[in-house]
Amino acid sequence: KQEVTQIPAALSVPEGENLVLNCSFTDSAIYNLQWFRQDPGKGLTSLLLIQSSQREQTSGRLNASLDKSSGRSTLYIAASQPGDSATYLCAVKNSGYALNFGKGTSLLVTP
Amino acid sequence: DVKVTQSSRYLVKRTGEKVFLECVQDMDHENMFWYRQDPGLGLRLIYFSYDVKMKEKGDIPEGYSVSREKKERFSLILESASTNQTSMYLCASNTPDLINTEAFFGQGTRLTVV
User: Fold this and answer.
1) CB of B36 closer than 8 Å to CB of B90
2) Which of A13, A56, A95, B57 has its CA at a distance of 20 to 30 angstroms from the CA of residue A1?
3) Cα A65 from Cα A52, distance rounded (Å)
4) What is the pLDDT of residue B97?
């Protein structure tokens, strides 16, 4: 069964710092990996989707990389802002229909 | 703007009640999902549907059932609500494309069973 791990579970950084969130998965036979953001008490917002054949995807200040063979993905956030404070979740898609989620990294960006 | 809409943001129900959670998507997606999210446990799949009237059990289907009579609507039913079903419930949808399919989520329903 696919296991998805996100480290660290929580992170606090001062505004302006660049930061990296990590996601690892045990079964490298994935079709894609998706990063989500979740604000407290809200649903998930899709940030980036990386297909299994891709190495990275970029959207604004966000850059996600994928190393399928080693079972790792990173989400890089440049020049962090207080509005980036949220929980970030990664999810991988193996065969079948559903996504397998990590438990998330809770990010706090302090002014 | 693509949308997955859940009928309620917050619900409070009594133990033993039959509870309906509704989800509607406007993207013509074939697949729809119900997850619950609990602190320390993350998101767990309850049920999913890959077509109208088709459903499959997820990891934690006990105490739940689902209905999909129309493509855009997927309902989660708690047959007899219990306090251990107090949770955040999240609906999602995507296409059957294996590789290039992005999942979209609703805003969540916070259910409290008293």
Assistant:
1) yes
2) A56
3) 11
4) 84
The count of CB pairs under 8 A between chains A and B is 58
Q: How far does A15 lie from chain B, in Å, by closest CA?
A: 27
The verdict on A66 touching B (C-beta cutoff 8 Å) is no
Q: What angle do CA B77, B78, B79 make, to 5 degrees?
A: 100
Q: Kindly write down the DSSP assignment for every residue of B47-68, as one continuous string.
A: EEEEETTEEEE-S--TTEEEEE
Residues in a beta bridge with A46: A36
Q: Which tokens is B25 given? A: 């998507």
- For CA atoms A101, A103, B62, A44, the dihedral sign is negative
β-bridge partners, B33:
B48, B92
B71: amino acid identity, one letter: K
Q: Give the mean pLDDT of A36-59.
A: 95
- Distance of alpha carbon A38 from alpha carbon A40, whole angstroms: 7
Report the residue of chain B nearest A38, measured CA to CA: B107
Amino acid in position B59: D
HSE of B36, CA atoms in CB hemisphere, 13 A: 22
The residues facing A21 across adjacent strands are A75
B103 Cα to chain A: minimum distance (Å) = 7
Nearest to B86 by CA among B13, B5, B6: B13
Amino acid at the residue B2: V
pLDDT band, residue A96 (cuts 50/70/90): confident
8 Å CB contact between B14 and B113: yes
